[in-house]
Amino acid sequence: MLVFLLRRFLNSIPTLILASMLIFFVIQLAPGDFLTPARLNPAISPQQLENLRRSFGLDQPPVIQYFTWIKNVVQGDLGLSFQYQQPVLAIAWPRILNSLYLVALYLVLFYAIAIPLGVYGAVKQYTLGDKISSGVMYFLLGFPSFFLALIVLYGIVQLRFATGWAIPTGGMTSDNYSTLGTFGRFWDIFKHILLPALVVAVGDVAGFTRILRGQMLEYLRADFVRTARSKGASEFIVIYKHTLRNAIIPFVAGLGGQLPALISGAGFVEVVFAYPGITPMLLDSINARDLYLIAGFNILTVALLIIGNAISDILLSVVDPRIRYS
Amino acid sequence: MKKFLMFAALTLGAASAAPFVYPAAWFADPASQAKSGGEVRGTTLSDYKTLNPFTSAEANSLPQLMGDLTAGLFQQDPTSGDFIPFMAAAMPTVSNGGKRFTVKLRPDMKFSDGQPITADDWVTTYKIDVDDKVGSNARDSFFLNEKPITVKKIDATTLQFDFPAVSASAYSIMSYAPWPDHVFGPVYAKSGAEGIKAMWGISADPKTIVSPGAWVITSYQPGQRVVLKKNTYYGQWVHDSAGKPLPYLDTYSIRIVKDLNADLAAYLSGQTDVYAPTKADDLAQIKKAIDGGNLKSVLVPNVSPNSTSSWIVFNWNKSDDLFKQKIFREAKFRQAMSHIANREGMIQLALGGLGTPVYTSTYPVFKNYQFADTPKFEYNLAAASKLLSDIGFKKKNAAGYLVDASGKELSFTLATNSGNTVREQLGSIFRDEAKKVGVKVNFTPIDFNNLVDQLTSKGANRPFDAILLGLSGGTNIWPYGNNVVPCGTNLHSYNAPANGACLTPQETLMTKLYYQGDQTLDVAARQKIGQQLSKVEGQLQPVIYLVGTNFHVTYTNRLGGEFKRNLWDAYYGTRPGVFVTTYIK
What pTM was estimated for this model as a whole? Predict the structure, then answer.
């Protein structure tokens, strides 16, 4: 196992280098730079633009900029954000934490909805319940989550008008957050993230449920399931221990992809719900061509992807007895 | 006798050691109605980037809110546009032919940490701002034609400003916020620009932040919320007309809301007190909520035009296409293009009926710089056809487009930045109207950064035909762009040869008039020059101005302390400073 992990680590070095180059130069390929909008500001003179360009290091050729950056990255410094004039990690980290809360609840909701629904669809194939859930899933599959979020937002405002309930329309905390106790704070954040997390979860459930249902159906007809039944195992054990454990293997293999997803936040739903996650900030920085913030965050994501894949390989060996690393 | 008068003036100056009093005449309601305490809840669409006043680059930044918007030597009186002393004790003594200003400071002013505000603070702020290694956006404001303005301390309460030339903007230049010398001075002396740049980042401890103005930050949660508390020392020198210290409010909290829909939702559901509506749809929703009794708010649409406009500029430097270069340089051609611009249609279709036609570079909100004798080329297709035929486009080809005597078709490419739906609609309307008179416009939205590269390129052959874009900002003091009007400046985008020379006598005249007005301290004389400049500009039509958006106001009924209704506009806003006189009813 240790040898396997070491090999994985060594293999990941060229991947990271290549990824860092791609990230850096793809951003550079786009026309203009951080200071382009300033050129349309009638109050900034060309000399001052030159000063800023020099102080941001934008007057250097991209290759030199890359090597300076990568040298700093190796030493654990992801660079300085142009907009904030602060280290990238100091800017991104609080946002990543915020996104983690939201994504954690999303994952709980996601699996809590998707697994039972998938199992139900397979066990009760072609019943009315299965047809309804399939129908709803198909509908949701074609629905972009930000649009769903907009509809939910509209619904909240109307509900507030109708009932006067203080349902939060966005953000992560209430105005009086700082005066609350520990439980109060937990509850306050929960109230704020429940709806956005649900919106993302509901939007994503469809695909997962469909595949899980198919997997379950396949294994329900397998010999070992029949054997288990004939041994007199209870239906619950048959379904959840024998069938589901096998049906879930492809998803465990894909878990590695979830780790970067954890810090990448909930996408446009964060924007619509004015949630202070990582996505609104990344969109801003892409818009502003904040080179090091974009590159720094992306390199972090790539690193997590590599780590995540290693973890999912380990998990796979736990779940699937056919896989052993030795 | 002269000496005696001088002495009298000085003692008078000292006798006015009173607080600044917001005149009762500015406000809708008497100051006696105001209550102290409470909180105003606002929003902002973009995250705050820094607390450092020297590296801050965005509009509506926190340093601006704590500083320039509520502190400064002078401020403009919205009833007259005149500058009045604010942190200055009185109007300055002007000498050296209008180039030297000696300013007495109002006594007893303190920073939010209780330290006195003295001449040193203005001098240190100036020193750091002009250091090009700091990269302050305010640097340029301390230079006139690349010659520096100097700021000197005479004594603890007296400042002396020396301008290299007389400047119309002298009072606004002097009105920058003083940042604390006792905080920044020692760092600057020890570690220079690098030390300054490392200070007051967005994650700095709010306890270390010192404000000269009405508000000081107490907490900041990234991407979520900023809470500002009133600077209690501010009320020692800023009063209302009833003698009460300002600001009335205890707290000003700002939610950071990335999305306009979420911003509107928060306002509609009563979670915020102010909202800046821009779209017809927003206004309709707010009106519906007010009419339905769900929202208790004031809503005033179309208060005034905004200081912004969209325009089309033609490239005079096209040495690779002499046919186009010739027509783009033809004033009659550009006048025809102005006639083609269906500004009313643009307002109805692209701005939802909420906009104002614009004909010159001075935005209509600057009422003191709109002149009856400025030529306007209003929407008139027949007049456009006449002008085009004057310059040789008399016949149409088989495709229905105008051709010159040699059969060359009148066509050009108009670019704007993709993704800006309003500009994309303005461009389409222009293209469709142009087609009616036989002008072929290939309208193509392209990437913003590419567009800016094209617009700001220099040389004999620049890579575009025409660009549709917008600019905004400026003041009503001398509302002609300092790097737009004079030849050779950065945004003089219609004619930008490598050497920056003017091409036409009108351009030369405009450049001359621009500097002349910019160096005129007397308001009436300056307006006269502006009138001449507008006339030349209107005739030359170097840029075809199209339309600007309007300023709309809405706030909840909880709030009082706003200007009289007739003083509201996009330039002065609806209340002085940032909620300085606002109270909760």
Answer: 0.85
